[in-house]
Write a structure and sequence with these properties.
about 200 residues, alpha/beta, 7 helices, about 50% helix
């Protein structure tokens, strides 16, 4: 008897996995056979995925929501597909793409067509991620050009900072004394002094 598995990956701990869970619960009846990793897909040292892989045997069935759950790039997706289908002898069903169902067309033509579809979709998945990163970079650059500030807002300088700065710059105050007057650590005073000096010269 085949064992039916489901695999879920969310790329960060903030990402919501509900969409994948709902889809897999409809096809995987045993809850303990649904494995989930909540971490980056940078590599495949993912504990849940590896545990599932060790348990799988020939003719078992794996459901995933989309092809990019197997990897973050074209090569990774194809490699994991090869390990699962060729080395482990497992069938795979990709819910978002019914054409990727290795249970169908086990003859040479069926396998050939499935491999072609897989390669196309893997390329499309990687290309879309590349485009997303490029759009994000372009958006950030455009926002910076408009003067949008990223990161934590910079706190305003404390009252009297300019006077203390001038005394420190004229060697009439040590850095420690200047920082104490401004009620901040020495490292913070030196950082703010550097920013203040840079802004004055721009």
């Amino acid at each position: 008897m085949e064992t039916v598995y489901g695999y879920i990956r969310v790329s960060t701990k903030e990402q919501n996995e509900d969409r994948q869970i709902i889809a897999l619960r409809e096809v995987v009846t045993a809850e303990e056979n649904i494995y989930m990793d909540k971490q980056s897909g940078k590599d495949f040292k993912r504990p849940a995925y590896q545990r599932m892989l060790r348990k799988m045997k020939k003719d078992d069935l794996l459901y995933i929501k989309s092809i990019d759950r197997l990897g973050r790039n074209y090569e990774e997706i194809l490699e994991q597909w090869r390990i699962l289908t060729k080395e482990k002898g497992v069938d795979i069903v990709v819910l978002d793409m019914p054409l990727l169902d290795t249970r169908r067309g086990k003859d040479l033509m069926g396998t050939f067509l499935s491999d072609i579809v897989l390669q196309i979709l893997s390329f499309v998945a990687e290309n879309e991620r590349t485009n997303i990163r490029q759009r994000q970079a372009e958006g950030i650059a455009a926002a910076k050009a408009r003067g949008v500030q990223f990161g934590r807002p910079i706190k305003p300088l404390p009252n009297g900072f300019e006077k203390v700065y001038r005394l420190w710059k004229a060697d009439k105050l040590t850095g420690v004394a200047a920082a104490r007057l401004c009620k901040m650590p020495l490292s913070t005073f030196l950082y703010k002094a550097g920013r203040y000096e840079k802004e004055r010269t721009e």
